[in-house]
Amino acid sequence: MEALPLDEKINDLKVVLKVEDFQQLLDALIRRDYQVVGPTLKEGAVVYDSLTRVSQLPAGWTDEQQAGHYSLKKRSDQAYFGYGVGPQSWKKFLFPPRITLWKQKSPGEAPEPAELPQDAPRYAFLGVRACELKAITLQDQVFLTGPFIDPIYQARREKVFIVAVNCGQAGANCFCASVGSGPQVTQGYDLALTEVTAAPEAYFLVEVGSQAGQTLLNEVTHRPATGKEVAEARQVVERAASEMSKSLATADLKDFLYTNYENPYWAEVAGRCLACANCTLVCPTCFCTSPEDVSDLTGQVTEHRRRWDSCFSLDFSYLHGGSVRPSRQSRYRQWLTHKLGTWQDQFGEIGCVGCGRCITWCPVGIDLTTEIRALRQAAATLTAGTETNPKSDER
Amino acid sequence: MLSSATKKPKLAVWKFASCDGCQLSLLDCEDELLAIAGALTIAKFPEASRAFARGPYDLSLVEGSITTPDDVERIKRIRQQSKLLVTIGACATAGGIQALRNFQDVNEYIRLVYAHPEYITTLDRSTPIADHVKVDFELRGCPISKTQLLEVITAFLNGRRPRLSNYSVCEECKLRGTVCLAVAEDVNCLGPVTQAGCGALCPAYRRGCFGCFGPRENLNLPSLVAWWQSELGLKPAQVELALRTMNAWSPPFKEASENL
Asked: Is B129 found in the same domain as B71?
């Protein structure tokens, strides 16, 4: 979705969608040939999958997240969006985990692209959180700017319709507020919902972010919001912000990381890190892939494929003669330094949106906010040691 | 691509201590079997045919582990007759489930199991093929993956290196969209330390990874085991049980299970 220049009227428009009319929103999207994808329960977690009915949403469920742990719990109400982000992100739709880029049926023939832009799926994302919207804009920078545009991402991205949702609660691993990506959605959506459950009657406060959103809303029963309702919705997001206990201090991160390649604490993290790649694969901004060329037994039919890969795998950094990052220490350092440091040189800001997925889904509970603090502490201890050591100046 | 004028390379399949499951993967290549038979002369493959052609062989697939004094001699003869020797499966690459004997006194087992122990001639350890002869490539798995076997044969026919992953099973779970059992269900899953190749089959059916494909590169078993014990409350005996299966004798699993 291209961010449309909005006139004041649309931007200020706040309406109420009653919970009993919520299905109309999905129906309107489906009528417009969107494949609606959104949160639903699968394998003990909230995942993103195709939806046709609001009853497929995880109403009445919430999640509890800790470092290395995730579990679902019943809520006391029937909130449709009363949980945090799960193991998957929207990148699986815009940036598919595996895709064939082209096929060649025989050596003489021209390769055929496997997915033409006009064949790209037309998704409507239902329930995109503020941190996830930010992640999408970060991946937009990766795939849609610079000399090489990714046509697969571009075709999918241009078609997508985004229904964002403001968070009403913060998970234990959330830190979006400290990195400035949430919990309030501010831009990049077609419609944004705030779910108010505490009132005598549950409702969604809807904000319109684009002409497409406005047009769609016209097909759904709604009424203007009262001042009281707008205030109630604001409280929902304020509560999420105030609940957030984790944070990441970003101000001098790049300089800090650039001067700490030899920080002894990297070895400590590497002692726990499994280099399993889970953090990078659940990360909504990580974008690394590996190409794969495959052939059939005869060597006549060939395919060029692309799949998600990770800086935590040995082969990812393989150049002639060997891998650049053979140790777990070098891989963890690479990941964190890129995500929070060199990403700034590449794209002008950090590559972390504070969603906390890498913390929850690390099988040994490694928490980057804690590790950054520990790295800073180790650096401070070293500096203090140097200052009190008279010999250090002589070297 | 081999031209039709070229003589077709000879393939032989050999069996040592094993269940035959891995070599049956070759027969499981139903759709591709004709193409394989068209590209290769199947010189020896008792599971498929009684026909037997003498060596030397261009490609030998070796299944099973070395468990008898006779095996030790036979694998040397096979090596001498094989241009390329590829081991297939956990038995051939790590000693297999039968390597559990390596942690015990094999004579005690023989006495308990056999009515006439004097008929049994066996080594006290089950060992991988690579402990005895040079191996050109090791294909992991219990059993091996049909897709990976095809890739090895295709690579061989096309004169290139096989393109097989050495990353964790976790990557395969994420690629297929499986929710992590270790995190969501507190299961002691071996996925993070196990080499990919199975397509993350077990987690997709909500079972933790059993480690069939053996240790991945640069694995960190001590950290995973420490987490199992501190966070999932596993007792040393439970950890040992998880580590001592098809790849019990692979050095990292062996070491971790002995240090509990």
From this structure: yes
